[in-house]
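User: Good morning. I'm curious how adenosine monophosphate would be positioned relative to this chain. Could you predict the structure with it bound?
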Amino acid sequence: MKIVKTIKEVKEFINSYKKQGKKISFVPTMGCLHEGHLSLIRKAKELGDCVVVSIFVNSLQFGENEDFSKYPRKEKEDIKLLEDLKIDLVFMPKESELYPKNFSTYVEVKGLSCVLCGKTRPSHFTGVATIVLKFLHIIEPDILLLGQKDAQQAQVIRRMINDLNLNVDVIMMPIIREKDGLAMSSRNNYLNKNQRKDACIIYESLCLAEELINKGESSAEIIRNEIINILQKVDYLVLDYVSIVNYQTLEYTNEIKDNTLIAIAVFLDKTRLIDNIIVRKK
Ligand code: AMP
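Assistant: Good morning! Here's the predicted structure, ligand included:
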């Protein structure tokens, strides 16, 4: 496994694989790796001949009052995990490698970036789209692996890839959860013992929603109210949103159908947690 910090080194490494006609699969991460990330990387190994993982805490996708400076960084542990998985290349650039002085070009995916998480985090998806486009140019992967944990992000990136005629297949992998159902996330590290225990209410509410839908309930309003009722059992939980939307367009829907996204964002004290399910109906 090679670890590189510069764009030049990435290109040199990738070129030798490209020349041999090998398939490159790419998993972008912000590090502090957990099973969620590892599931993407395992799939990347299955699908590609050369697996590239980036570890970069992207300042551009954090708002002014967000957790960029305290975002967990665990370089040594991450490298060990990646070594065990026997991936080919880790790209761990410095901030200045990707955002040199006078950097001033941004990718804005209109519409999809303004709803759900984009309401509370207005510059977030521009930061995400910009860094992902840069990575796609640098690495030129054949396959990009993303997690459903960030379902809106996956949709924003798919739209960008389509709009800008990029030649890369996107694979979205299911959400990996802790034993009690909490979606794995680097931000779970912020939770104290009580908050960690209470956090599983998010998935509980989604499971109840799924159960009601399976029994035939199709009113988005009823499902949304049920979810909110459950979340309110944790008295200090602050709701950011519970949104029921068409996963393709991210527009609100009154009726729950196939491919409806039920997405939740809450604050437990200062920690913002997200989770979702995508309804599959025949
Ligand atoms: P992050 O390091 O949080 O930027 O995440 C990097 C990638 O891992 C993104 O595509 C995420 O959607 C994905 N990911 C994060 N958590 C999970 C999880 N619990 N299950 C599946 N994928 C995840």
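DSSP finds ten helices and nine strands in the chain. The chain has a mean pLDDT of 98.
Let me know if you'd like a different ligand tried.
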